[in-house]
Amino acid sequence: MCGRYYVSDELEKQVSGVLGDDPGASDLFAVSADAPSMRDVCPSETATIIAAPDGERLHAIQMQWGFPGPSGKGLLINARAETAREKQTFRESILRRRCVIPAAGFYEWDHDRNRVSFFRKDHSLLWFAGFYDLFDNLQHFVILTTAANASVKPVHDRMPCILNAGQLHDWICRDDLTEDFLRMEMPMLERYQEYAQLSLQLDGV
Q1: Contact 159, 152 (CB under 8 A)
Q2: Of the residues 18, 56, 58, 120, which has the maximum number of CB atoms within 10 A of its CB?
Q3: Residue pLDDT, tens place only, 166-176
Q4: DSSP element (H, E) containing 41
């Protein structure tokens, strides 16, 4: 599962390196001088994602996180990579409307409800695989998840499907490669747990 992720003030720079001269991208990622360097993104909020509406060129677009749930109740914020193509709610979107969600990292909560953050060791962006659809004239996205690897499993049994920067165009534009991406191995991540760090420091006093 991925129920919250965070973005940083370095996001614009790294995304621009992927999108090149996409007009308007800087406006979508711009951070004001008094804004925090890190910002959490929660379900139902608007976030910047990467898609190719014309089927060829990648663009930065703002969308709302979460599909409306059955009967309009709740939000569907994740979809399982193993079954998304079989679900009527997700089938057409994952086949035709794939996207990528850039993030600095994401959070999970352990069994004691302590928050744990996950990120790349070199602090480069995480590129979550996802897809989108239109509801009431607004575009909404969900994040694909898969079985957790050894770096995430001690905290949670699911993790986002994470792409490398060089795979973004193929994931979004190559329909024939979708199944291959859904089966690929996830990268190992670093994790940080503030409460555990504090306990360790106290024990050493």
Answers
A1: yes
A2: 58
A3: 999 999 999 99
A4: strand 38-41
